[in-house]
């Protein structure tokens, strides 16, 4: 259905200029951007990366072998640290047939 003045459009949120990626690796280790972090250091590392902006959108991605419970545990850690804008994204594939970001 086309958008018009009477019907507000549901447009996807724009991508952040400097996305904050948090990755749950196959061994359940964490990486904030390209830097490995521990569960204990995650809140401080996030604060440093986002410059204390708890409204920053965190893009959470995980290896396909990571179980649901582990992923939800990381989301709970983000929530406890005050980061409520979390989007779950897939890991970018590399190699043949993948699309560039």
Automatic annotation (TrEMBL):
GO CC annotation terms, alphabetical: plasma membrane
Location (main, coarse): membrane
Gene Ontology molecular function terms on file: transmembrane transporter activity
UniProt keywords, alphabetically: Cell membrane, Membrane, Protein transport, Transmembrane, Transmembrane helix, Transport
Alphabetized Pfam families for the sequence: ExbD
Protein localization: Cell membrane
InterPro entries membership: ExbD (IPR003400)
GO biological process: protein transport
Bilayer topology term: Single-pass membrane protein; Single-pass type II membrane protein
UniProt family annotation: Belongs to the ExbD/TolR family.
Protein name per its UniProtKB record: Biopolymer transporter ExbD
């Amino acid at each position: 259905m086309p958008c018009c003045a009477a019907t507000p459009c549901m447009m996807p949120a724009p991508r952040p200029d400097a996305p904050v990626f948090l990755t749950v690796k196959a061994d359940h280790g964490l990486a904030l951007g390209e830097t490995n972090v521990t569960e204990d250091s995650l809140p401080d590392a996030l604060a440093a990366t986002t410059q204390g902006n708890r409204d920053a959108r965190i893009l959470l991605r995980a290896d396909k072998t990571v179980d649901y419970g582990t992923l939800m545990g990381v989301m709970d850690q983000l929530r406890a640290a005050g980061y409520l804008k979390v989007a779950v994204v897939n890991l970018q594939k590399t190699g043949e047939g993948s699309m560039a970001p």
